[in-house]
Amino acid sequence: MGRTRGSITIQDVALAAGVSVSTVSRVLNNKDDVALETYERVRSVIDQLGYASSLAARGMRSRRTNVIGLIMPDVASPYAAEMMRGVNGAIAKIDYDLLIYTNGNVRKSAFAERDRRFVMLLNGGITDGVIVVTPAATHFPSRAPVVVIDPNNETPEYPAIIATNREGALEVMRYLIRLGHRRIGYITGRLDLISAIHRLQGYKEGLTEAGIPVEEALIQVGDYTTEAAVECARALLSLKEPPTAIFAANDMSAMGVYRAACEAGVSIPRDLSVVGFDNLYEAALMTPPLTTIDQSISEMGALAVDMLVRLVRGENLENHQRVIPTRLILRQSCVPVQQSKTHARNTPIESK
Fold this sequence. Notes:
Layout: H1 10-17, H2 21-28, H3 36-49, H4 55-62, E1 67-72, H5 78-91, E2 97-102, H6 111-122, E3 129-133, E4 146-149, E5 160-163, H7 165-178, E6 184-187, H8 194-209, E7 219-220, H9 226-237, E8 245-248, H10 251-264, E9 273-275, E10 292-294, H11 297-312, E11 321-324, E12 327-329
Helix pairs in contact: 1-2, 1-3, 5-11, 7-8, 9-10
């Protein structure tokens, strides 16, 4: 009885082609150091034996899979949904498929090692190139193209997309200060990311520009998650002189501020003005609707697809780094400080 397609192993392919197992593996992974004659012979044997009818085998037959990889730390968050919306819209217009890879939790450890492993896995013959969102790594072991959204260094070695984070944060601070706020709390994002560093810079520059001293007690280190922001907001609201406004580094952190304020009986915006950053779809549905900075997340995703496909096709990019302008979206989560009621300035809220 003959062997089934599923029982054919890489060792069988190597034996039939007269090459080593490592050579077969290099052909499957689209390595460039395999002689064309050897490559064609291994390809023929794989076709004859029916070995590995997978994305890797499809890539081996044409040196292309027509699949783009998207690596994200978490696909359940509103930020991820907005990003995927842009990527999906761009993919729908071209002859490519999308493969999404995630470890399911932005708070898991070993970020950099995880990012490198995912890129190596997908760009090892499964995809033609990958888009990596908010990576911790700065270098990826990949010969296939890589495009990064929200890199974690000033001069990324890969094509990258980033928003005007410092300018956006500075615009928020100028707005809050125009409303009369001087005690403005801040919840940072992941400080291994340039976006978080630049937003913190914008916060501090806004205070300095207005002649307001920077108070470290008003700065809480978050990680762009709602859960961390709840704890940060509780700490800010527990100060002897709590802030009259809190600027959260992203909308998901602003959601944490809303939750902590609700627990503490603090009314937004009557007692506390709140601003976010991202302009997620959910921001307009919050109660009250959240004032925030729009950084065109969907556009970032679509632009990343365009850049990656150009690289896959061997085209040159006009700009190695694309900068997306930000803009302030005014809603109902902020009021002038003189209209707000002094909320427990003399009776700080107990931290829970």
